[in-house]
Each structure stands twice: as C-alpha cells, then as structure tokens.
Amino acid sequence: MAAIDWEEYKEFREHSVQEDKLRITIDFIKSYYNKHAVFEIYDMLSEDDIAQMMLEKRNITSAESLESFMFQQ
Question: How far apart are alpha carbons 60 and 18 in whole angstroms?
C-alpha cells in the first residue's frame, strides 16, 4: 500500500472547499491515488500515523464505519 504524500496533500488542501481534515484526506486519496473502494481507503488511512489519529478522533475502527462517515451529510 502506498504511503500518503503529505506534501501533495497540503497543496490539495489549499484548493479544497471541505473544512474537515479527514474528508479532505479521503478526497485526496480518491483523487491522487485513484482509490475509490472504501476498504482500500481505510487500509491506506489505517497504515499512516497521522491519518490513524484522524480515524481515532472520530471512533472509526473499520471500513464499514468509514463508509458511514463518508456518506454523512
């Protein structure tokens, strides 16, 4: 699994209309890495220390709970 390129993320975040950092990160993974399956996105997030903190902050512990988060609002 690829590691999240946080330098590219910072540039992506500057142009994002989202305010939530996890939502921005999910959009970044979809765009930059062309990953759209929830389990792939969750695996990528869970393998990165910074992204893992974002997941823990929202009590997201599985791909299913990430999917629920992604489809809120």
Answer: 19
Residue 1 lies in a domain: no
pLDDT tens, residue by residue, 17-56: 999 999 999 999 999 999 999 999 999 999 999 999 999 9
Report which of 56, 58, 23 is spatially closest to residue 41, judged by C-alpha positions. Answer: 23
Distance CA 16, CA 10 (A): 10
A 10 A CB-CB count for 11 gives: 11
Give the distance from CA 35 to its chain's centroid. 10
User: pTM above 0.85?
Assistant: yes
Q: How far is CA 35 from CA 4, 30, 59, 72, in A?
A: 12, 5, 22, 19
Domain span at 35: 6-70
Q: How many domains does the chain have?
A: 1
